[in-house]
Amino acid sequence: RVRESRELNNGGERSCRHVEFDILAPAVGYETGDHLAIFPENDMSMVKALAARLQVDLSLYITVKDSDGFSPFPCPCTVEEAFARYLDINSLPRKSFLVALAEFARDGSERERLLKLASKEGQDLYHQYVVLETRNLLDLLNDFPSVQPSLECLVELVPRLQSRYYSISSSNLVHPRCVHVTAVVVEKKYQDGRSFHGVCTSYLRRLHQGDIVRAHLRKTNFKLPREVSTPVILVGAGTGIAPLRGMCQELEHRKRMLAPIGKNLLFFGCRRPTEDYLYEEEIGGWLENGTLSRVHTAFSRSNDTLGGGKVYVQQRVDENAIQLLSLLDAGACIYVCGSTAMARDVK
Hints:
single chain; alpha/beta; four-stranded parallel β-sheet; three-stranded antiparallel β-sheet; 19% strand; elongated
């Protein structure tokens, strides 16, 4: 159940959400560094638009079974429930789906175009039209007005809506019955007026206090060292700060319990210090109370950056290489969380 949902960014073109969930199942728990898998729901405006395009009544009950007689999702259910909770109508259509849609095209030119997109020769065209321009099922149906697929075909071909995994940004030692999630809302806008919204991050933004969310926890090996005095080096960019925030909460908890924590460093990178420096006040507090010995920041799009150039977190790591190597030689543990490119450069 949603305890709190708030915006983290201060202006700018992107939204970053901090959402807290109360754990309702009494036997369920988590540890710092674990993942939360969230089962999202599609936006109702898209659900209604798709139903209108297909000329289908949302209140119609359907039952779906595979060749073995099993239902891939709870049935019977309404079309609205299937579109909103069980079918990934926001996903990018695969080539096999385009071939199936071509069978329902009443216009010959539209049929040929769909088959061209799905062909080996049309690979570049498909990549540009579907992948790079992120066209989902509704976009496709709007671009091919003569295509009128059956509801049965659609339910069979559209992939099932899967859970999305997020690193938990809290510590169970501080918040034992509440998990925190930090996520940037995925949004893309195109010159033709279309927009693409990430299904789960948009769902998170729509949540309000008290809403019930379907989710489950997944254990990971992303854990702090058992020996509390081991130095820790934390490196994160953007929402990569999420699991590192949970670790800092745990380190602070250990310190309050009078445990002899080691020398802990944080490297954090974002775009601008006034816009998306996530959890700035908390980080400042950890530095002030000694949970963190030093914080190194990197701002890639700040006007205050010396020389006007971009500075990334991996550059800060490189600048402090001698100190870091000394800590690693002394047994320090390093944790890196962020984009694959950043993690590769840090390594």
